Every structure is written in structure tokens, then in C-alpha cells.
């Protein structure tokens, strides 16, 4: 006796056969679903997020074999629904993976988001308003950085709804999403370090939805007010 247990994928067209696959699918395993315009629904061309595992690699006649379907869930914001991971602090890359464990890559098209600052100058200890402007989005990571340096500087406070300040290298030096709820045109509050000695810019990664995100959304340079000693060649002097 041969035992073959196969589970077919459900495409959103499950409503076409809500009580099981049609008998016509028994040979070629194709559901035969049709769109409303009567064109045929084709199978996905990407790697499947599903795996079928069997409890044993052998069986005997009459024996029951357990088959398990493991479902991979692909969702950028479900991967980190409560904020960007600490591993993203330097590269600003979320590090999300598809269910087949391949990496989700950033978008290569121009970003629809802008990072805007209320002032083009600042002084040590000053507070600035920073805005992420553009279409609605779900996730983000925002930092202020000295020109040419990779680490965040300053601190954020008064987090708006659905956002939170987090620590990458120092307390509250980065802002991220607190949940995957939709956000749009948010304004964040940043305070400069008391020993600031260099120009800064704000840099953000913005995730519009699921696997769609843009890196290197940067503000214009914010210059240190004249009268304060500036950083030279990336080092404090």
C-alpha cells in the first residue's frame, strides 16, 4: 500500500472551493481557480513559504504516518512589531527574512519619504523637531549622527503615539515604532548632546509595509552654531 498525503496551497481563492479541493485537481494538483474575469489563476513563481515534514522516513502497510505542514509567515512588521532590533543600530537594516530564510532587501527605487528638521542650525543642549513626511508607513528607525560617523548622538523624548525611544549606544538615542499600526507625517523631539562639537544629519529607515522598506532617508545637514568648536576629520578636538 502506498500512502501519499499532500496539502495544496490556498491562494485567497479558497472561497472558490471552500470545502476542499475539486476532484479535477487529483492528478495535476492544480486547483483550477478562476479570477472574476474568467482568467486562470497561476501558481506563484517565488519560492514557497511552506514545508511538509513527515514523522518518519519509512512506513509499513497499515501504519499511520503523521504529516505536518509548517507555515512560514512573511511580514516585515510582524517580524519586529514592537520596534527595530538592536542589530539594526549601525547599518539601519532591519535584517528581516522571508519564510525561506532569504533576506528581504531594501527598495532600490527613490524613497517617497523625507526627513525634515525644523531648523538648519543647532547648539549644544538644544531641542529640535524632526519630521518623517510621506505616505503612511508601519515601521521606522531614526537617529541623529555626526557627519561621517556611524553612531547615534543626542536623545529623543516625548514619543508620539505608536512610537518609542530606544537605546542603541546611549539611553533614548534612537526612535522606532512601538507597534505596526499605521503612522504618517510624525514629528519627533530630539535634544542635542551638551558637548556637541559637529554638524549632524538625521537618518531613517522607513518600512511602508511588510517587505517594502527604504534605507538612507536623510535630512539636510544641520550645522552647529558658530562659536562652538567643531569636529575635525571625524574626531572630536
Account of the 3D structure:
The protein is mostly beta strands and 237 residues long. The protein has two domains: 1-72, no CATH class; 76-224, Reeler domain (Immunoglobulin-like, Sandwich), CATH 2.60.40. It has one helix and 13 strands. The strands form four sheets. Strands 8-9-6-11-12 form a five-stranded antiparallel beta sheet, with no helix packed on it. A hairpin with a 2-residue loop joins β11 (200-209) and β12. It starts with 49 loop residues before the first strand and ends in a 13-residue tail after the last strand. Residues 1-15, 69-78 and 232-237 have low confidence and may be disordered.
User: Residue share in helices?
Assistant: under 10%
Distance between the termini: 81 Å
- As a whole number of angstroms, the C-alpha radius of gyration is 25 Å
Percent of residues in β-strands:
25-35%
What is the number of beta strands?
13
Characterize the main sheet: 5 strands, antiparallel
SS summary, helix count: 1
Number of individual domains: 2
The secondary structure category is: mainly beta
Q: Kindly report the average pLDDT value.
A: 77
The CATH topology of the largest domain is given as Immunoglobulin-like
Amino acid at each position: 500500500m502506498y500512502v501519499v498525503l499532500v496539502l495544496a496551497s490556498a491562494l485567497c481563492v479558497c472561497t472558490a472551493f471552500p470545502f476542499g479541493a475539486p476532484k479535477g485537481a487529483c492528478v495535476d494538483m492544480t486547483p483550477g481557480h478562476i479570477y472574476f474575469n474568467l482568467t486562470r489563476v497561476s501558481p506563484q513563481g517565488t519560492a514557497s513559504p511552506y514545508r511538509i515534514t513527515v514523522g518518519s522516513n519509512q512506513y509499513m502497510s497499515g501504519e499511520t504516518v503523521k504529516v505536518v505542514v509548517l507555515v512560514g509567515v512573511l511580514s516585515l512588521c510582524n517580524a519586529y512589531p514592537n520596534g527595530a532590533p538592536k542589530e539594526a543600530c549601525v547599518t539601519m537594516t532591519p535584517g528581516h527574512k522571508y519564510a525561506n530564510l532569504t533576506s528581504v532587501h531594501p527598495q532600490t527605487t527613490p524613497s517617497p519619504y523625507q526627513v525634515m528638521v525644523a531648523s538648519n542650525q543647532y547648539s549644544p543642549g538644544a531641542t529640535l523637531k524632526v519630521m518623517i513626511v510621506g505616505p503612511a508607513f508601519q515601521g521606522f528607525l531614526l537617529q541623529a549622527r555626526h557627519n561621517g560617523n556611524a553612531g547615534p548622538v543626542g536623545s529623543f523624548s516625548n514619543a508620539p503615539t505608536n512610537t518609542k525611544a530606544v537605546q542603541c549606544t546611549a539611553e533614548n538615542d534612537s526612535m522606532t515604532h512601538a507597534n505596526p499600526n499605521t503612522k504618517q507625517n510624525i514629528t519627533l523631539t530630539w535634544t542635542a548632546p551638551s558637548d556637541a562639537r559637529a554638524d549632524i544629519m538625521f537618518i531613517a529607515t522607513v518600512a511602508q509595509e511588510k517587505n517594502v522598506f527604504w534605507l538612507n532617508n536623510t535630512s539636510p545637514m544641520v550645522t552647529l552654531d558658530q562659536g562652538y568648536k567643531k569636529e575635525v576629520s571625524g574626531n572630536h578636538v
